[in-house]
Amino acid sequence: MKKYGLVILVALLAFSCDSEDDNSDTERVLVEQTLIVSDNLYGNGDEGLVSQNMVITNQNAWDALIAQLDSVNNVSDHFSETAIDFSLYTVIAVLDEIKGSGGHSLELSIMSNTENILVHVTDLAPEGNATTVITQPFIIVKISNSDMPIVFE
């Protein structure tokens, strides 16, 4: 009788465990990204850009963003590239809120699952003393085009 009890217990445990295949739809895969720029605006907000996440899929929107970023200081000089082939790439731009000190930056982690491209934004704050200059951190990357929606986390 004890043998049957042990067999039943082992069977219950085996069938109650989730298999890895059951969670395959939530697996995340790293999306390759190319950094265009990670910098700060120093115009004390005069650029008129609020904290926002942008997905840019065409040349007109890209030109408008560059013009607004360059409205006070010519920051596009620091871009690794400005000529984007939108038939191949999508641009992701993240602008942080205006900060009362320097040393802030943004970092992106871009993953995909079976349904979405997920963009996780990390705000990196300075450790210790920071300059007392007003800044607005921003980061711009490009990824290969996809039909999946882009979701910011």
Structure explained in plain terms:
A hairpin with a 4-residue loop joins β5 and β6 (117-124). The chain is globular. The protein has 153 residues and is of the alpha+beta class. The protein contains two helices and eight strands; from the N terminus they run αβββαβββββ. The protein starts with a helix and ends with a strand.
Overview in brief:
The chain is an alpha+beta fold and 153 residues long. It contains two helices and eight strands, in the order H-E-E-E-H-E-E-E-E-E. 17% of the residues lie in helices and 33% in strands.
Q: Count the DSSP helices.
A: 2
Rg of Cα set: 23 Å
Overall strand count:
8
Strand content: 25-35%
State the separation between the terminal residues, measured CA to CA.
54 Å
Overall pLDDT: 86
Biggest sheet architecture: 4 strands, mixed
Order of helices and strands: HEEEHEEEEE
Q: Strand sequence of the main sheet, in spatial order?
A: 1-5-6-8
Outline the low-pLDDT stretches: 1-24
| Bulk shape | globular
Alpha-beta content class? alpha+beta
Fraction of residues in helix = 10-25%
Features:
153 residues; alpha+beta; four-stranded mixed beta sheet; four-stranded antiparallel beta sheet; 8 strands; 33% strand; globular; disordered N terminus
Chain-wise SSE layout:
Blueprint lengths: L1 H15 L12 E2 L2 E9 L10 E5 L2 H11 L19 E7 L9 E8 L4 E8 L11 E9 L5 E3 L1
Parallel strand pairs: 6-8
Antiparallel strand pairs: 1-5, 2-7, 3-4, 4-7, 5-6
